[in-house]
Amino acid sequence: MASRTENSSSKRTHLSKPCLSSSIDGFEDRQNRSSALSVHLKALSTSIKFWGWRFPNKKFKSWARKMASLHEPIWRKAGIFEAVIASTYKIPKDTDLVLGLAEKWCPDTKTFIFPWGEATITLEDVMVLLGFSVLGLPVFATVDSSGKEIMAKLEKEWKKIKNDKVCLVTKLAWMERFMNSGDELEHVGFLVLWLSYFAFPSHLFHISEAILPVAVHLSSGTKMALAPAVLAHLYADLSLLQGHIRVFSESLIKVQLDLNALFKLVQVWAWERFRELQLKPFSLLRGEPRLARWCDMKQSTSNAWRIFNNSKMDSFEWRPYTKTVKNWDFPRFYPERAMRVPVGPNLDDEFISFARCIKVSELVGIDSVEHYFPNRVASQFGMRQDVHCPVNQKKLSRDAAWNDYDKPIDGLTIYIPSRSAISCVTPMCEPQRKGFVESDETLKSRTIIGDDTSFVTSGSKMNRTSEDEMKIAENSTNKRRKYMKQAHRSTMGLCQKQVPSDNDEDDDSLTVSQVMVRYKKKYSDIKC
C-alpha cells in the first residue's frame, strides 16, 4: 500500500484515551482469560464452524462473469455490481486471527475492546470492502405489482426443486436448473444463488425462500440496503462467538457453534487496520474491488491473541481507506479537502451513504435487529470522538428500526472530513475545553451531520426546527457534561450497559469515593 505524505494543513481529530481504573481491571480479566484460552486454542477452533465463509468455485465465477457482461447496468443501478465481483475472490481463512479478535468483542457496545480503546466494523467497512449498498429498500420489502409475475414463477421453480429433493433446495440443484438456461429466470436465479451464498448464507448449504423477493427486486434494478442487513448478521454472530469463547475453557461440556455471517470481513478488516498483521497486499488491476488486494493471501497468525492483547494505538490504522492505493479510486466521501454538502434532491448517493455510515441507528437484518454506535468510533470517520457513555439497550421493532435508519435528512448539511484528517489522543483530563464538547453557541447554530468540531450525531436529532435545535443542543450539552463528570468519578469499564442512576441529581453531592462505591455496585455484574 502506498503511503500518503501528510502535510501541515492536515486537521487532527481527537480520541479519548481510556484511563478509568475499571477499564484496566476489566481488560486484565480478559488478558487472563486469553492466556487460558490460548492453551485450548486447537480445541476451541474445532468447536466452531464458519458456514458463511464460502469460496467461489469455477462454475460460479464463470456464471458470474457471464451475468455481469449481460446485466452490469442493472447491477450498478441496484448497487450490487462491486459486491458480486468481490464475491468471486477467495479469502483464505485464518481462524486464530478471527478468534483472537472476536474475544475482544463487546455485545453491548458492538465494538472491539482493546487496551487503548474501542474500534469496530462499521457500515463504511461493509460498503468499501464487500461492495454492499447502505441505501435502498429494506431486505423485508415485498415485491410490487411489476415483480409479482417473476416472483410467482420463481416460487414455482423453488417448490418444484424442493419436492424433487425431498427436503432442501440445494446449491447444486439450483445451479442445474438455472445456470446457462438462457430463459427469463436465469438472471434472477443467479442472484438468488449469490445472495444465499455470499450475502446471507446458511449452514445447511441450501437456498432460502426468504431470499427470493430480494433477488426479484435486484433483478429489476431496485436498490436494496444489503449492507445494514449483512452487518446486523455479523454483529449477532460476533456476540454468539464471543460468548462461546468466554465459557469454552470453563465448561465441561463442549458444544458445537455454527456461524453463518460473513466473517471474512472480520479478517480483512484486521488486515487493513493492524500493522502487525499486514502482509504486503497484491496490486490491484484497474476495475478490481478493494477486496482483491487480499485474494488468496495465505497467513496463519498463531500469535493473534498476543498481538491484540498488547496492541498500541499507534499500530492501528484509523482510516485505511483514505490512503492512496494504485488503481483504486477514492469514493467521493474521501475528499482532499473537508466539505460541507447541503442535502438536496440532486445530492450524490455517495454523500448520503456517508451520512448513513455515521448515524447512530439500528440495523435491520433478515431475522435480527442490532444496535449501531458509530459515535463510539468517530475517529474511524475522521471526526472527533464522543466521550464513552452508557449505551441504550432497548431495541425497536423491525419496522420502527428501519424507519429510523431511513429517516430523510433533507434540509441539513453533511460534513465530510478531509481524507488527510489525522486521529490523535486527547487526554481525558480536559475533554470539556479541548474538543469534546461544543460551545452552546456552536451547538445552537449547527444543522450539520458530523463535523470536525462535533460528535457523530444520532439520527433522532435530525430534521428539527431551529428552536427545537436550540433546545436539543442545550440538553445535549448538559447531558454530555454530566456523562463526563460521571466518567471522571466512576469506575465504569469500556463495555457499559445502561443502568439508570438511583438519583442522578444527588451525584454532585457525593464524594469521589462514594461515587466509586455506587458505580462498582451497579456494574459489578456486567462483563463482556
TrEMBL record:
One of the record's GO molecular function terms: transaminase activity
Signal sequence region: none
InterPro entries in the cross-refs: AminoTfrase-like_pln_mobile (IPR019557), MAIN-like (IPR044824)
Pfam families given in the database record: PMD
UniProt entry keywords in alphabetical sequence: Aminotransferase, Transferase
GO biological process: meristem maintenance
Residues of the Aminotransferase-like plant mobile domain: 79-427
Name of this chain's protein: Aminotransferase-like plant mobile domain
Provenance organism: Arabidopsis suecica
